[in-house]
């Protein structure tokens, strides 16, 4: 009632115009696919890197999902749990796929649309693919190789110094990460925290790794890529490596030796003066830093602040060190590289098995148990008297270890060091070194530890088993008494000796009378006490020897009895 006749005519006209368009749209949405003349490729994912593209004749491994244009799936490699492995360009695939895969990169994903004439045509494929079907394949490329391929090596780190490279029959220790060509990790020595240790070039490894390790330096890092026929072949490893898979190993070489190797010695510094070189049977004190061939630290004597002390050439240390320490000078620095068969072998001891060891050694001192005191002398122009046992000597000294480490000196106090030779007041080697010296003479004494402070040394001052070096100047000397004497007469003995001592004439001599008399004789030059000792102690000792009955008094009978003894040891 609201519309006029004219308005109704306009509405009918619009419906007549719009309805055909709606019908066309509906038909188009449900129409069969438009036939394709050629394959159509939609690149759904392209990796940042593409080191290699598929070429005709290559072997490829890929996953796919096969669908009809309406999205209905007719096949999938994922469902079978295995990739599709095939040569490209050898008519092992439908023509459209053979054509479409060329140019793909590993890890690239394409949607490939193939017309029926390049697929299964008018015949279709059994009950799975109807005749004249357009096929869509969602393809992910995982691997590419060719029968002409060889091992590919890419070194991405090389050490500055490379003194040796891997050769056939060498034994190596290395770490690796093993992946498939698409980056899938299948194995790693790092996760096991243990290197892979093996011989190279003699068939202990897959062929590609045997080739890929040759020529490497210790510390070098390289990527080794190999085709499956140089890896695990058609069957893979039965676990993590599929059949026909290319392998990629990221390798760092840590160690390298040959069973025929001997030790190598690199002398890093020598002292200006080397009067003697070490021999078998010597006892040596040395510092060292121990590391593996790749620089990994494992031990140091410096960290313990104590030298390593041992006999050399006698099997007290590993065989390689026994050899490496022969022929060294005190003060020498040398590097000793020891193959494992001359070190800790396959098992290792607190270090990896089959490891090459590197020792940076500093020789502090060495000696031989048969050594005597070594004396170097500068005598004065006049040498009237030579020091002997019993003499009282005064001297200055500077004392060091063989490497120059300071021990002590009289120069700091300005006072001489005073001793009686033969009285055990200094180490044996010093006594031997002082005997025969003249006043004003200078000597350098090199004293082996068995004539010095021995294995224990002096706590906080002299290390155990240390060779000592003394620079000595004899300042003064007082001739001693004959051996065994503490007092001697310079003139004839008085026949009234006892009565002269007995001042109070009580027929006995006490210690005071005895002491006063002896000191008076010394003062008057009639007698001499042994120099270098406390006079009172000497006199007390003399008195005790005369007091036969130990009653604190000497009678004339005791005194005479003593005088009747053998004169060779009669103090009076």
UniProtKB/TrEMBL annotation:
UniProt GO cellular component terms: endoplasmic reticulum
Molecular function as annotated in GO: calcium ion binding; peptidyl-prolyl cis-trans isomerase activity
Compartments, as annotated in UniProt: Endoplasmic reticulum
Keywords for the protein's UniProt record, in alphabetical order: Calcium, Endoplasmic reticulum, Glycoprotein, Isomerase, Metal-binding, Repeat, Rotamase, Signal
Pfam entry (one): FKBP_C
Species of the source: Sinocyclocheilus grahami (Dianchi golden-line fish)
Entry's EC annotation: 5.2.1.8
Function as written in the Swiss-Prot or TrEMBL entry: PPIases accelerate the folding of proteins during protein synthesis.
Protein name: peptidylprolyl isomerase
Gene3D superfamilies referenced in this protein's UniProt entry, alphabetically: 3.10.50.40, EF-hand (1.10.238.10)
Superkingdom of this protein's organism: Eukaryota
Domain annotation EF-hand: ranges: 489-524, 534-569
Residues in the signal sequence: 1-29
Catalytic activity: [protein]-peptidylproline (omega=180) = [protein]-peptidylproline (omega=0)
Domain PPIase FKBP-type: 57-145, 169-257, 281-367, 390-478
């Amino acid at each position: 009632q609201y519309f006029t006749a004219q308005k109704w005519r306009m509405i009918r006209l619009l419906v007549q115009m719009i309805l055909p368009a709606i019908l066309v749209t509906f038909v188009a949405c449900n129409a069969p696919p438009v036939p394709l003349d050629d394959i159509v490729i939609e690149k759904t994912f392209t990796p940042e890197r593409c080191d290699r593209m598929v070429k005709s004749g290559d072997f490829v491994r890929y996953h796919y999902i096969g669908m009809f244009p309406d999205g209905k799936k007719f096949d999938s490699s994922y469902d079978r749990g295995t990739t599709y492995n095939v040569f490209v360009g050898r008519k092992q695939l439908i023509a459209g796929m053979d054509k479409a895969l060329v140019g793909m990169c590993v890890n690239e994903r394409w949607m490939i649309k193939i017309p029926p004439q390049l697929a299964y045509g008018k015949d279709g494929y059994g009950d799975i693919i109807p005749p004249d079907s357009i096929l869509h394949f969602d393809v992910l490329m995982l691997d590419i190789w060719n029968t002409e391929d060889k091992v590919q090596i890419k070194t991405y780190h090389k050490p500055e110094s490379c003194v040796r490279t891997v050769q056939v029959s060498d034994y190596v220790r290395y770490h690796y990460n093993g992946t498939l060509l698409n980056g899938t990790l299948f194995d790693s020595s790092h996760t096991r925290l243990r290197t892979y240790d093996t011989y190279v070039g003699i068939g202990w490894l897959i062929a590609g790794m045997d080739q890929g390790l040759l020529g490497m330096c210790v510390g070098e890092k390289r990527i080794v890529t190999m085709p499956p026929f140089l890896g695990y072949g058609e069957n893979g490893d039965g676990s993590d490596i599929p059949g026909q898979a290319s392998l990629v190993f990221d390798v760092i070489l840590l160690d390298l030796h040959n069973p025929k190797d001997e030790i190598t010695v690199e002398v890093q510094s020598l002292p200006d003066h080397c009067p003697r070189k070490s021999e078998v049977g010597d006892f040596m004190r040395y510092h060292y830093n121990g590391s593996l061939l790749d620089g990994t630290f494992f031990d140091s004597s410096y960290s313990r602040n104590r030298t390593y002390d041992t006999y050399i050439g006698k099997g007290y240390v590993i065989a390689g060190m026994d050899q490496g320490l022969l022929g060294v000078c005190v003060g020498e620095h040398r590097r000793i590289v020891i193959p494992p068969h001359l070190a800790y072998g396959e098992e290792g001891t607190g270090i990896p098995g089959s490891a090459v060891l590197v020792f940076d050694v500093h020789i502090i001192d060495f000696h031989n148990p048969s050594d005597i005191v070594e004396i170097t002398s500068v005598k004065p122009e006049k040498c009237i008297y030579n020091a002997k046992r019993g003499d009282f000597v005064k001297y200055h000294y500077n004392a060091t270890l063989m490497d120059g480490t300071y021990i002590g000196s009289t120069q700091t106090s300005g006072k001489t060091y005073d001793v009686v030779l033969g009285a055990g007041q200094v180490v044996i080697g010093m006594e031997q070194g002082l005997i025969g010296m003249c006043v004003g003479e200078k000597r350098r004494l090199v004293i082996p530890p068995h004539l010095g402070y021995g294995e224990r040394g002096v706590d906080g001052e002299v290390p155990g088993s240390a060779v000592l070096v003394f620079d000595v100047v004899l300042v003064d000397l007082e001739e001693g008494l004959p051996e065994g004497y503490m007092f001697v007469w310079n003139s004839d003995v008085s026949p009234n000796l006892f009565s002269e001592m007995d001042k109070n004439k009580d027929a006995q001599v006490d210690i005071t009378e005895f002491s006063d008399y002896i000191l008076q004789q010394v003062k008057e030059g009639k007698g001499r006490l042994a120099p270098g000792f406390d006079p009172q102690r000497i006199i007390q000792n003399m008195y005790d020897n005369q007091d036969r009955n130990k009653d604190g008094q000497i009678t004339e009978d005791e005194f005479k009895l003593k005088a009747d003894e053998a004169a060779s040891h009669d103090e009076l």
